[in-house]
Amino acid sequence: MVMFDDELEHRTVAELIRSLYAIVDEFERRNRGRRFTPDGHLVGSIGEIIAAEWYGLTLYPASAETHDAKSPCGREVQIKVTQNETGQVGLRSEPEHLLVLYLARNGSVSELFNGPGALVWNAAGRMQKNGQRPISARKLRILVAGVSTTERINPVERAYPLKVTDEHFVE
């Protein structure tokens, strides 16, 4: 087991994400008809560590109410992650600032929204039985087009190489 741990220690976040999805694919291959979708806390926590690294955020303890982190400029930030570019995210309360990331199976990540939480909260659907107000990725892309650069949290210099393309952040 030690050899496997040593091997993982030197992998990038994108490589670890690709490995995670390779394991999911293998479980699904071996168990036809069963889905092994990474979701919930796992995907949320992955998104939080990526956002913290890219934007220089200070993360709060897990499961903090409303906000997940504080930005270098002092904004309270809620971080949401989706694995479906056309899916949706849900909000339980209005955050000061919202970051929504799309996590792809190949380990790439793209920013769907980076701006004032009130903008998204006011455009989200009505409260659902699960206590969340949904908003689609499509609507987030429309809303972010109207967010000025001064309203966004800018990425910081990173310890590992990362370039921004039109669609995805890629290691």
List the helices and strands and how they pair.
Blueprint: H1 2-9, H2 13-30, H3 41-55, E1 58-59, E2 69-70, E3 76-82, E4 88-91, E5 97-103, E6 109-116, H4 117-123, E7 133-136, H5 137-144, E8 163-164, E9 169-170
Parallel strand pairs: 3-5
Antiparallel strand pairs: 1-2, 2-3, 4-7, 5-6, 8-9
How would you describe this structure to a colleague?
The protein has 171 residues and is α+β, with helices and mostly antiparallel strands. It contains five helices and nine strands; from the N terminus they run αααββββββαβαββ. It has helices spanning 2-9, 13-30, 41-55, 117-123, 137-144; strands at residues 58-59, 69-70, 76-82, 88-91, 97-103, 109-116, 133-136, 163-164, 169-170. The strands form three sheets. It has a five-stranded mixed beta sheet. A two-stranded antiparallel ribbon has the order 4-7. A two-stranded antiparallel ribbon has the order 8-9. A hairpin with a 5-residue loop joins strand 2 (69-70) and strand 3 (76-82). The radius of gyration is 17 Å and the shape is globular. The relative contact order is 0.15. The model is unreliable at 159-171 (pLDDT under 50).
